[in-house]
Structures are given as structure tokens and as C-alpha cells.
Specification:
Blueprint (H helix, E strand, L loop, with lengths): L4 E4 L4 H12 L4 E4 L9 H11 L3 E4 L6 H4 L3 H22 L2 E7 L22 H16 L4 E6 L2 E2 L6 H9 L5 E4 L3 E2 L2 E2 H17 L5 E4 L6 E2 H12 L6 E4 L33 H23 L1
Parallel strand pairs: 1-2, 1-3, 3-4, 4-5, 5-10, 6-9, 7-12
Antiparallel strand pairs: 8-11
Helix pairs in contact: 1-7, 2-4, 4-5, 6-8, 6-9
Length: 301
């Protein structure tokens, strides 16, 4: 049995979107969620690739609980570091292209300009360190077929995220205090999924060089600005959103103050950068609103 694509972490927010779009395009795809493939299990990874022999593996599996990683770094490393290493080893046996999804948290977040793909990582959290370990394993093991795709500030209808949280809180809280001193790029899973498919196809054709790519929507915003845009789409009163500092809303793992990523590497593949973040938010919003209202209805039963 063979397939064109194998997607790990297929039950996650990005994984679901990617699988949906591949199948909509009639691409023969194996959706491997955690129940059918634990990427930390080297034997299982090898057996899966031996069985399906995919042309492309997209690794969307990850430990994404940033705060919990601070006290469970070994467990996070198993998924974010050792798991990609096992996938890379198995892909190397079959000459399979690996698209490994990573994060802005590999950078320290103190830049005064967008981080380039070639900038040296320097993570400040356990989560960032574990994700960097995965990147390095993929690039070292697959110098000719390994692609690291960093993204950030993801939202989508298929999982928990900031946009859906704001939709939920707007209905139950009079005032929302939202951080206004962290900058990043709100990024829709639909745009990232489309870019992964395009990158995978170009890699198969030999027109997308291996290495690091940044897949975030263009432009930049603070969490407060994003919350205001969500309120605007809801028709809610923006005066209910109050700016707050990171110091006033501390987290176990400090968040980067500046997570804006540059997109220069796409030119190497002859591809444009992703569109400005405002446009996909409008496009995705009906599905996000429906998903959140559906969740609310289920919990009300």
C-alpha cells in the first residue's frame, strides 16, 4: 500500500486542515493521529513508512503546551525533539521528503526587525528548546530532503486558539484585558496548509530547496489588536477590550515580545509570501464562529 502524503498529528488544528485540503484535492493521503502513530516510537515510525512509502511526510505532531513544558521538558523533548528525529531517520531510508512544522519560539523574541530564516535561534523557554532540537535533527539527518516550516500565532476552526477564546469570552465577560506589548503575526491554518501542499509539491519537482521556511501571514499585530479585530467582526464594542502588559498577566513560560518572522526564503522557490493577516481572518471567521458556537451548544446540553 502506498500513498502520496502522510500527515502526522492529523487530529491537531493544523493537521486536520492539511488533511482536509489534501483529500479535497484528491491526493491519496494517510491521516496519522496519535492513536495510530506515536512519533516517539521508532519502530512504529519505521513500520508506518515501510507500509505506506509516502512521497511526502508532513509532521504536524507536537507538544504545544508552552507553559507545561517548563515543568515537563523531558516529555516535551520526546515529542518535539526525538519524534522528528525518528521521522527523519525513516524518511531518509525511503528518500521521502519531510516537511517538519516548527515555531517562532526558537528565537529569543528581542529583535527589532523580522527574524530571517538564517538568523541563529536562541530559545528562552523549555518549549523553544525542544522545538529547536527537532529542527536540528531534521536538518542534520535530511540535508537534501528536509524542510523546516516555522509558523506562529496559529488559529483555525479545528482546535483551541486565541481567536476562538476571544469569541467565547466576548459572550461572557464585560471587560477583556489583553496583552498589548507582544508582537507577532496572526496566521490561519488554512493558509499554512495550502503553503505546505505547495512546498511539498515543489520539493517533489526539485524547485524548492531544503532548509528553513517561515510560514506566517504577513504584517504584524499585538494580541490586543487581534482581539479588537475579532470584536469588530462580532459587531461588539471595542471599548470592552483593555490593553495590558505582559508583566500584568504573567505566564509560567515567558512569551516572546517580538515574534515577527521574515519570509525571504520563499523567493528561493519562486513562491510569493503569504497574504496580510487581516484577509484570512475575515475569510476564516464564519467557520471559527460556528465552531465556537457549536462547542458552546454541546457544553450547554
Amino acid at each position: 500500500m502506498t500513498c502520496e502524503w502522510l500527515v502526522t498529528g492529523a487530529d491537531g488544528m493544523l493537521g486536520r486542515e492539511l488533511v482536509s485540503r489534501l483529500k479535497a484535492g484528491k491526493v491519496k493521503t494517510v491521516a496519522a493521529d496519535h492513536r495510530c502513530l506515536d512519533i516517539t516510537d521508532g519502530d512504529a515510525v519505521r513500520e508506518t513508512l515501510d507500509r505506506y512509502r509516502p512521497a511526502v511526510v508532513a509532521n504536524c505532531a507536537a507538544w504545544t503546551d508552552v507553559d507545561a513544558a517548563e515543568s515537563h521538558e523531558a516529555e516535551a523533548l520526546a515529542v518535539n525533539g526525538h519524534g522528528p528525529a525518528r521521522l527523519a531517520e525513516a524518511c531518509g531510508v525511503h528518500g521521502t521528503i519531510l516537511l517538519h512544522v516548527s515555531t517562532d519560539h526558537v528565537f529569543p523574541g528581542d529583535s527589532d526587525r523580522p527574524y530571517r530564516e538564517t538568523d541563529d535561534p536562541a530559545p528562552r523557554t523549555a518549549y523553544g528548546r525542544t522545538r529547536l532540537a527537532g529542527e536540528r535533527a531534521v536538518l542534520a539527518t535530511l540535508p537534501g530532503t528536509g524542510h523546516v516550516v516555522r509558523t506562529a500565532w496559529l488559529y483555525g476552526a479545528g482546535g483551541s486558539n486565541f481567536v476562538r477564546t476571544v469569541i467565547r469570552l466576548e459572550a461572557v465577560q464585560d471587560i477583556l484585558h489583553v496583552v498589548d506589548d507582544q508582537w507577532g503575526q496572526p496566521t490561519w491554518t488554512g493558509d499554512v496548509a495550502d503553503r505546505l501542499i505547495l512546498l511539498g509539491n515543489c520539493a517533489r519537482e526539485g524547485t524548492a530547496p531544503p532548509g528553513v521556511y517561515h510560514a506566517t501571514n504577513s504584517g504584524q499585530a499585538t494580541w490586543n489588536r487581534l482581539a479588537c479585530e475579532v470584536f469588530r467582526l462580532l459587531g461588539a464594542d471595542l471599548a470592552r477590550i483593555h490593553p495590558a502588559s505582559s508583566a500584568a498577566l504573567p505566564r509560567p513560560a515567558p512569551r516572546p515580545a517580538y515574534s515577527v518572522l521574515g519570509h525571504g526564503r520563499w523567493s528561493d522557490a519562486g513562491l510569493p509570501t503569504l497574504r496580510h493577516w487581516c484577509y484570512p481572518l475575515v475569510e476564516a471567521f464564519p467557520a471559527l464562529l460556528a465552531a465556537e458556537r457549536g462547542r458552546r451548544a454541546r457544553h450547554a446540553v
